[in-house]
Amino acid sequence: MSLFESMKGVQLPTTEAERNELTVTESTHGIWDYHLSRRANLMRALCGAPTLPTAIPLSAWGDQPDENLPRRPTYCEACARVAWPQGKADDGNDTAGT
Ligand SMILES: [Zn+2]
Q1: Residue 82 Cα, ligand 1 centroid: separation in angstroms?
Q2: Are strands 33-38 and 22-27 parallel, antiparallel or unpaired?
Q3: How many other C-beta atoms are found inside a 10 Å radius of the C-beta of residue 40?
Q4: Which residues have CB atoms below 5 A from the ion given as ligand 1?
Q5: Residues 73, 26: contact at Cβ < 8 Å?
Q6: Distance (Å, rounded) from C-alpha 98 to C-alpha 90?
Q7: Is the pTM of this model over 0.70?
Q8: Does the CA dihedral 77-80-82-86 come out positive or negative?
Q9: Domain spans of the chain, in order of start
Q10: What is the pLDDT of residues 3-62, one digit of tens each?
């Protein structure tokens, strides 16, 4: 399946505001490895990582589901810093460096 095939179900943004809207995307090389992208460029995260679109709402960013999953989802800190320079609703104390 080509990348264009996988884009078929994705609604294309029409206005400038929609194009700049943040959306949750998934890393192309890991499951449950989430980044943030602008709707105008879902194939690239704010941090520069190659990504694929997801159906996850932005409000779910940072959530850790209670379900019994084999591993916890991870959320890219670099993307979050670009998206919310002043921090999102609550500031996590995760200061892991590179
Ligand atoms: Zn990222």
Answers
A1: 9
A2: antiparallel
A3: 14
A4: 35, 45, 47, 49, 76, 78-79
A5: no
A6: 22
A7: yes
A8: negative
A9: 19-62+70-86
A10: 566 566 667 788 999 999 999 999 998 778 999 999 999 999 999 999 999 999 999 999
